[in-house]
Amino acid sequence: MTVAVIALAATGCGESSTGSKASDTESSSSGAYKGKGIGLAYDIGGKGDQSFNDAAYAGLQKAEKEFGITGRDVEPQDGETDADKIQRLTQLAQAGYNPVIGVGFVYGPAVKEVAAKFPNTTFGIIDDETVQAKNVADMVFHEEQASYLAGVAAAKASKKGHIGFIGGVDIPLIHKFEAGYIQGAKSVVPNIKIESQYLTETPQEGGFSSPDKGKDAASGQIEAGADVIYHAAGLSGQGVITESAAKKVWAIGVDSDQYNQSALASYKDYILGSALKNVGGAVYDLVKSVVDGKPLSGVVRGSLSNDGVGFADSNPKYKAMTDVVAAVEKAEKDIVDGKVTVNTK
């Protein structure tokens, strides 16, 4: 199954950008929206990662276009602190942006503090469900379910019975990706050999923002014998994909349909598929709820059953592997039907 994720535009990195769909004081076409626009603060790696952050940006772009409102997206800085994030979100809220969205769990403390100071502004945070407030939507996902499908695909596609997993940072969120992947692979080949590696212990060390680290890790796993490698490493995953293509083994992307990303076009023949997380859809849905005057709040979770996660099948080579496709489709049905419960650890 392919989740109907919002297509990513080709983007570069910069400090911020401002939409031009409407003036700062203009309401949406419905006349109900009175905010200045959408405020979006990026996670580590920033815009241009062709994955997590760019998916959020695509959601902002779709909302701007459909609702006729502006948006401002702001880049993170190297070595920044929670205080820097608090200042960033505060500036967006003070300027009148609504909703204000922190892309990534690292914004948890900042969203909690700033949302309390601006009770009439809706805040969103992606990948964190600990910020409990009436004006906050905690947008989270069953990443392990999409990763299970990636594991099934990897095990079926591997010719050596030897696959790999590369996580950006050794944290509970990425453990979910690994757990689902391993469980899915072993459901197909119980004794399959799996290389597993985390690039860094903390986000500040560059685990999500260092393609060179991803490249080196992939090189090591390929040398060890892996012929399919799944990454959950943000921008670092570009290094995994480029090295996999260079060594002519399969890579599996994450969050966005990386087969269709322009920056990866030279390597797409070796992208078997991608474990999807509909971050763009979550951003769009939150903006729509605010525009409609019925802002979302509390935990909003994406799963296979509501198209919040899935597995991309854009590569024609993947589609031609009918046994792989059939196995992934069966695994998806079993999860949705409750026959399979996917591990998160």
TrEMBL record:
Keyword Calcium recorded: no
Main location: membrane
Keyword annotations of the record: Cell membrane, Lipoprotein, Membrane, Signal
Record's keyword annotation contains Nucleotide-binding: no
Membrane topology term: Lipid-anchor
GO cellular component, one term: plasma membrane
Domain (ABC transporter substrate-binding protein PnrA-like): residue spans on this chain: 45-329
CDD domains linked to this entry: PBP1_PrnA-like
Xref: Gene3D superfamilies: 3.40.50.2300
Subcellular location: Cell membrane
Family as reported in the entry's similarity comment: Belongs to the BMP lipoprotein family.
Protein name: BMP family ABC transporter substrate-binding protein
Source organism: Streptomyces phaeofaciens
